[in-house]
Amino acid sequence: MSTTCSAVDRAFEATLYADSDAALDTGASLLAADPTADTELARRGREFVATAWRRGWQPADVVRIVRRELDDVHVRLVSRLILDENRQPPNPRWAAQLDELGAAESDPPNTDRFSYATAVLELYRLLLRLPALEPLDAPGKPQGRPRGDARMLSRIRGLLAKAEATGFPEEAEALSAKAQELMARHSIDEALLAAREHDGNAPGACRIGVDAPYETAKAVLLDAVAAANRCQAVWNEALGFSTVVGFEPDLEVVELLYTSLLVQATTAMTKAEAAQRAGGRKRTKTFRQSFLAAYAHRTGDRLAAVAEEQRDQVAGAGERERGELLPVLAARDVAVREQVTRLFPETVTTRMRGVSDAAGWQEGTAAADRAQVRARSPLNP
Question: What's the whole-model pTM score?
Answer without folding.
Answer: 0.79
